[in-house]
Every structure is written in structure tokens, then in C-alpha cells.
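INTERNAL TRANSFER SHEET
From: sequence group
To: structure group
Subject: Glycerate 2-kinase

Please process the attached sequence and return the structure record in the designated field. Keep the field labels unchanged so the import script can parse them.
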Amino acid sequence: MAEHPHRTDLIALFETAVARAQPGRCLPGLFPDWPGGRIIVIACGKAGAAMARVAEEHYADAVAEGRYQALAVTRHGYGVPLEHTRLIEAGHPVPDDGSLRGAEAALEAAGAAGADDLVLVLLSGGASALCAAPVAGLTLDDKRALTQALLRSGATISQINCVRKHLSGFKGGRLAAAAAPSRVMTLAISDVPGDAPDAIGSGPTVPDPTTLADARKVLGEFDITPGSAVAAALNDPANETPKPGDDAFANAEYRLAATAAQSLDAAAEEARARGYRPVILGDALEGEARDLAKAHAAQALELQRGGERIALLSGGEATVTIRGDGQGGPNQEYALALAIALDGAPGIHALAADTDGSDGGTGAADDPAGAITDSTTLARAAEANLDPATFLQNNDSQGFFRALGDLLITGPTQTNVNDFRTILVEPPGE
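Return from structure group:
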């Protein structure tokens, strides 16, 4: 990565946000007491393996007495050493055979729970793809094709999950239904704007307020024509998800362990310590990445006139409507659009990255987390004969920042509270 005068501050704020949401920090005070029966841990998501490791340590007594059973399903390359937990790595954002095995193992474990057992579900972002249990009449290929179409459409994560919940035997409350009437406790690290439990990991342990009709409406809104098997499934009343008041949730509890808002607050404190006045634009921002970037560039330029050192902070989940054939992700596209909108304005520096360590990309664990941009970005691009507008049009933000050496590559962070963006604004002339 190229050297930037404020790179240290930008990365420090990102690392602070990530640290606030680490499983080892946010989980221990939330674990329920060991009930005396078995503890059946089902951890799923990009933080799944790390969450499972913390649970192993916490319930050492149950482990020693042979009353501990655990499964962790996480993204390929996101595993960590586990002594008492079965680990399955699976595909994200598009499910694969590992996703099928993960969902099958989770449903089997939940279904085997007895009246005296505790089913402890450790949930984090990515679970929707990592645990895939197609409803009757669907294949994995059907779900893969639909997932790819939804991801390219520009649909929000809530809209995508609405569809996926109605095509799954795991999502939309069905894991809780499999475990009933056993006690179910869910501890979740939220990666969705608004932190709605039914949206995090597609809500496998909570009632689903959306309907089959809602799912069909999403496909219509984005002009997605499903295959015949998907269309039939979305018209089959048997695939409606359990709703509030269903007996499946009589013994189910839910607690949020970490959120984007908490991570932004931690970053704000770090910004103050580094001499910036933090301004949090929101923890649940959604919309096209390039549109958010334009709006934030305008705010940064306006605030710069006030003569203060300011850190603009925001979270949420930006989206990208894919029209080109390049590579990248919402945070990289945001950074590229921001650089274009700022047009080399001096004294403004920014970082945009996904807190899980992977922003779009190929699905590999070493995909970029995001990118850094500053007042020299466009000048350096011109020297390298790179036209930023062309890269943006082709959705190739990764190619642009790779050529400049400005990609942020962190590897798996073992947590996920979604997008983290910060713009550092210095007074004019500094």
C-alpha cells in the first residue's frame, strides 16, 4: 500500500472498530449458565469459528464432564484452532457443498436436543450463505443461481434475505423449530443495518415477519425471473416461515453481542484521542456505494470550511448494481467514487472497508477488505494512465486500487459488523 500521511490514523480507527466487536470481548458476559444437561453449540457465520472457540473456553466444566457438543460453520479460510468443536468451512457469498453439510449438521444437532439441554446458537454475518438447506424441490444449483442474481441486482441485504428465508429449511426461524421445545439461546454479532434479529443471518432462531408474497415482490422489483423450481417454491404455502406467536419460539431467547453502532462509538473515542472531532453519519446507511460517496464527499467539503479536524464515521451496508465485469466490493467502489467526487481536494483522506476483512471479491480469505484514498489518488492515477471514471463504470474498483497499491488487505478479522467508513478532514492549508 502506498504511503499516506494519515494512513496510521485511518487504520487505527478501523482496527478499533473491529476490536470492539471481537468475540473474545463481546461474548463472555452474555453466556447463559450451564443448565446441567448438555450444551449444544451451533456457531454459524464469518465469526463462527472464533465465537465457538470462546464458548469452548467458557464452558470448560461442561467439556470436562462430556456434556458439551459443538459445531462451527464458517467461510473458507476463516477457521481457527478448535479442540472440542466440529468445524465446517463453506462458501460465501454463494453457497457450496460445505453450506449444505453445515446446515444439515446444524439441523441434526438441534433436532437431537432434549428437554434439559441448552441449544446455544452463536450467529454472525454470512450465515445465510454458509448454512444452506434448500426446501423440497430445489437444488443447490438453484439456490446458487438465484443468490448470484440477487447479489448483482443491487438489492439490499434485507431484501436478499427475505427471498432466501422462504427457500430454506434452516433460515427464517426453522432452526429454532428443529430444536423445540428445548431451550434456545442466540447470541448474535450484527452485520445488518438496524440490527433486526430476523435479518441477521436470515434469522434462523426468530419469527419471520416477511412472507412468500414479499419474497416474490423482491424478485419483481429487480426484474429477476426465477427458474421454474424457485418460482414453484415461492408459490408453495408449505414454504411460509413461522411467524410471531409460533410455539417454536416459546423457549427461545435472543441477545445482541456486538453492533455497528458500538464499533462506531469506539472509533469515535479513538478519533477524539487523535485530535479529531468525530461526526457519526449513521450506523445503518444503505444505498448505492457511489451515491453514498457523492453525498459524503459533499459533507466533507462543507465541513472543511469550518476549520476543524473532523473524522466522519459511518457504517451500514452499501450495495453495488453490477453492470461491468471488473472486481471489487461496495467499500472499494465507495472509495473510488469518493476520490472522483473530491477531485483531489487537499486535506481529505478516507478509508472504506468491511469489518470482516473481505469486501466482495472472489470469496477467498485474502480478498481485500477495502481501500484507502487521499488527495493524491487522482494525480497518481493520471501518472499511471488510469482513468478512474472508466474503472468505476466497469465496477473494477479493485483493479484501480491494486494498480495504485492502495488496497487494504487484512485477512479474516474473525468478526463482522459490516461496512466501516471514515473520512478525515483537515482544515484548508494543513
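Handover comment: The mean pLDDT is 95. Residues 289-304 form the longest helix (16 residues).
Transfer complete.
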